[in-house]
Structures are given as structure tokens and as C-alpha cells.
Amino acid sequence: MGKSHLAIAIRIKAVNAGFKVYFVNAGTLVEELISANMDGVLEKKLKALGKYDVLIIDEMGYLPFDNEGAHCFFQLVLRRYEKSSIIFTSNKSYGEWGEIFHDHVIAAAILDRILHHCTTVNTKGESYRLKERRKHVLTTMQK
Fold first, then answer.
1. Distance of CA 17 to the CA centre of its chain
2. Among residues 10, 17, 112, 142, which is most buried (max CB within 10 A)?
3. Which regions of 1-143 does DSSP assign to beta strands (E)?
4. CATH fold for the domain made of 3-142
5. What is this structure's pTM?
6. What are 43-71's pLDDT values in tens digits?
7. CA distance 98 to 78
């Protein structure tokens, strides 16, 4: 499918064009936001993330967020809304985002802001990693 590869290519192009870009795994980002919230420095963390022109959040939806994670993530999206770009990679359709946040209301609020100015790119096909692994196995078997 190549979602992460596409996001990495966009990151490289954006950096080469002079944009400040932060690429992060969704689970790692939410852990950082929760930790900042627990330490009383969520506002500082959100401000630091706001300094990036482009925020790329990889693997959105692979791990669900708890209530605190969903709240912190909403704060991030709200802070960046109509100010800075966010790119997501995900294997989940928008209709499944309620499962990610365990809350369909907060998912709808997040999606409302994300989808307002978005472009969605759907990738189809076999996973790049599985395809490469299959090639490796076939090559090894032929030897």
C-alpha cells in the first residue's frame, strides 16, 4: 500500500522546500501528549508542535486511544486547525475513527476539523512490506 512511504516522500519534499516538518507515530505522539498533560505542560507541548509547518502522524488507528489520549489529541487538532497542515496515514476509514478514540462524538469533532480542508488519498493494493517479503521468500526458495 505504501502509506508510510508516501508520507516520508512528502516529508522529504516539504523539508527540501524549506518547511519545518515533524514525522511521528500516532501512538508515540499520544503518549507524549498524555505525559505532557500529566506533567502540567500540555500547553507548552502543543505550542512546540505548533512551530512545525507540517505534522505527519503515521499509523493512525493501529492502537486505540484512551479518554485522556483522545482529549489531548483533540487539543492538538484544534490548535492546528486552519493554521498548519497535518498529514495522517491510516488503514482505518473515517467511519472507523470512533473506535480509535472510543468516543464517536470526539471523533466527529476531530474529523469535522480535519475534513474541512483536506485531500484524501486512498491507496489500494498489497502491502509494500508483504510484497517485499514475498519476493525475498521466492528468491530464497529458488536458490
1. 21
2. 10
3. 21-25, 54-60, 85-90
4. Rossmann fold (3.40.50)
5. 0.86
6. 999 999 999 999 999 999 999 999 999 99
7. 17
